[in-house]
Description:
With about 325 residues, the protein is an alpha+beta fold. Helix content is about 35%, strand content about 10%. The protein is built from 14 helices and 7 strands. It has helices spanning about 100-105, 110-120, 135-140, 145-150, 165-175, 175-185, 200-205, 210-220, 235-240, 245-250, 265-275, 275-285, 300-305, 310-320, and strands spanning about 10, 15-20, 35-40, 45-50, 55-60, 65-75, 85-90. Strands 4-3-6-7 form a 4-stranded antiparallel β-sheet, with no helix packed on it. Helix 1 runs parallel beside helix 3 (about 135-140), helix 5 packs antiparallel against helix 6 (about 175-185) and helix 11 (about 265-275) packs parallel to helix 13. The longest helix has 10 residues, at about 110-120. It starts with 7 loop residues before the first strand and ends in a 19-residue tail after the last helix.
Amino acid sequence: MDKPDPPRIGRVTHCSIELFWDQEKKPNECERTKYCVQEAGISGQYRNVYSGYAKTCILDGLKENTRHCYRVQINLSTMSSPWSSAIEVTTMNFPCSGAELHRAVLNWDVDKVKKILNNYESLVDVPDKMGCSPLMVAAQKGYTSIVDVLLTLGADVTFSNSSGKDSMMMACFTGHVNVAMTLKEHGASIEVKDQGGSNALHWAVDGGRASVVEWLLDCGAKVDELDVAEWTPLMRLATLDGKADVAKVLLDGGANVNTHDKQGRSVLMAAALSGRLDLVSLLVEYGANTEEQNMHGNTALDFAQSFGRHEVISYLLSIQPPQQEKQPYAVPEISYL
């Protein structure tokens, strides 16, 4: 039997080496071929590190940045080949820190991200000091090519930080609908909530991203989903001084214009309190009840007046129905007959 070629080197990391070898032709095609791989020790003596029928093996548990020397032998039931010549390979240095991967993501360095993860795939979800994975950072930045690379290399779309925020929420908050679409195609949920009870729709509303809100509603997001404060997205928008164009998307999507918070305050009251004439007029256009009172008997006009929101006060007064004059009270005639 001829001397086989030395093993070929596959993937090398700081702690493992992958080896391949070609299968030798056998005198008897029905006979299985067994292979033995040996490694040279410090003294130059060889020891067996693999024996089996596969044509590849991965040797792990190795030290970083160390030289290794391997040879292979082919074994049949009746004969064995000579040992191949040896091949040398050196393990890599210990993996670069997650900070280096995050720097590559922030710099939109696709090639660097690929290089790092091709050698150290276990870093694909390594969090930064804020607890965000590389995918979360790329989603927030809208780096579509980085997102594609990370997903291809196994990034977890469900990875979240300590507050429960994930890549989908990040993309929706910053308005990167193309990234959000890609994440959804890879299994990301639009319904999962963070520790504050907010899902992707709440974050899109907070970010003022009308196009993302519209996309989420088209995907089946619940327009009146409550957060931990029991605010719907529309109530949240009115309370946190959100955008009127986002409110219109919510209203066109079926949001309840007369929803309340736990104190009985309506969306219109919240908008009036903030002095948002554009939002107040939009809510009225969509049927908000201007005469409704909270548990203390205050209307949206009362809220506006209490904080001197003069534009809102003038508008609400202008749309109030005219007050009918009270008729004098007439004493009914009583007949004693």
